[in-house]
Every structure is written in structure tokens, then in C-alpha cells.
Amino acid sequence: MDTPLPKLRALETFSVDQIRCALAGHAPRIIRPTAKHAAVAAVLHETASGTEVLFIERAEHPGDPWSGHMAFPGGRVDPGDATPQHAAERETREEVGIELASAERLGRLDDVEGAPPGFDSLVVSAFVYHLERRVTPTLNYEVRDALWVPMATLLDSSRHVPFFWPREQREMHYPGILVGQPERHVVWGLTYRFVELFFTALGRPIR
């Protein structure tokens, strides 16, 4: 059973209007990509109780450096993608069945460069979208689960936990945010970094 997510005060979330205004004034840092470039989509939907963000849990695949991770929908930029934004939209459509071409693009976050230990570094670009209505994701084979997470949950310090990796060895830990089941639904790594950048752009750093 999923761990219930706490409901926080309205002041601890942001409306889509506030996010739109903040990102309109944000000049993202663009990293010139090398051979490896990926793009992701932070998909938002506004409810009566606050704004939610879509996260996916990647399926377990041997040899996949992102196997089992919590992430935004997205993936590699293919030669057929006109831009990283098109790659983010294509991957979101393929992974969760959500069409972003007609959605409102609110802005772009700073590019991030990195990779799991033992893998070549890559540049990841993140684009923020607003959906007028909440949709139920249709998952493909790359995705195990999808969660709409209140922004208030991401700001809740009681949800900020250490995440150990590799999980079996528990030698190193990284900052994480628990958004569902303990040990399983923890946002960490590059996705955590994008969450940091998102809230920093909104003027509300998470740490």
C-alpha cells in the first residue's frame, strides 16, 4: 500500500499562474551537449488543493543505469528529434501516453550534466508543461508506475530523506524526497537536482 501523502497548507504550494510568471523571468543555463543528450518533461496539473507534478518509476531492466529510479518522463534525444523539447514531448507520449504538443509550455530549467557511477556523463534538459486537466498515464514497458505528487509534498521537510545507493551496499547516500512507498518511491539523483532547480527558479529553495 502506498504511503499516504500529507496535505500541507496552501501557502506551501504554488499556483500555475505563479509558476508561469516565475519561469517567464528565468534564463536557463544551457550546456552544449556532447554525444549524449537527454530531455525530460516536468508535467504539472492544478487541482483545488494545489499543483501536482507527474513522476514515473522506471521499470527494472538489467544494464539500464536509470533502472527503477523515480524520474520525470523523458529519454535520449534521437537524431530524428528536431530539438531537445521535441525529444521530451516524444518520450512523454511513448512512456505515459500524454500528448504535450498541445499543452502549455511554461518554461525550461537549467541543463544538468551527470550520470550514475560507472556510466558516461550526459547532458539532460528539462521542460515544464501545464495540463489543463489531470490525465491517467498509460504506461509502456519502460515504466513501472506513475504518481501525481503535490508540490506541497516536495516542500515538506519530513519527506526529505537520505537515499542509499547502491541499495544493497548502503555505502553512499544522497539527498532524496519520499513521494510514495519508502525505499521505492524516492526522488534522488538528477531528478532531485531538477526539483531543486525548479523550486529555486520559483524563489523557494528546498534546502
List descriptors:
Nucleoside Triphosphate Pyrophosphohydrolase, alpha+beta, 207 residues, 8-stranded mixed β-sheet, 4 helices, 3-stranded antiparallel β-sheet
Could you say how many structural domains there are in total? 1
CATH superfamily assignment?
Nucleoside Triphosphate Pyrophosphohydrolase
How many β strands by DSSP? 11
Specify the helix fraction band.
10-25%
How far apart the termini lie comes to 29 Å
Low-confidence stretches: 1-11
Please give the count of helices.
Answer: 4
Give the overall pLDDT as a whole number: 90
CATH topology: Nucleoside Triphosphate Pyrophosphohydrolase
User: What top-tier CATH class fits best?
Assistant: Alpha Beta
Oligomer: single chain
Named at the architecture level, the CATH assignment is Alpha-Beta Complex
Give me the Rg, rounded. 16 Å
Helix-strand makeup class: alpha+beta
Tell me the overall shape. Answer: globular
Question: Quick recap of the structure?
Answer:
With 207 residues, the chain is α+β, with helices and mostly antiparallel strands.
What is the element layout, followed by pairings?
Blueprint: H1 16-24, E1 37-47, E2 50-58, E3 70-71, E4 74-76, H2 84-96, E5 104-108, E6 112-114, E7 122-131, E8 143-150, H3 151-155, E9 160-164, E10 173-178, E11 186-187, H4 189-201
Parallel strand pairs: 1-7
Antiparallel strand pairs: 1-2, 1-4, 2-3, 2-8, 5-7, 6-7, 9-10, 10-11
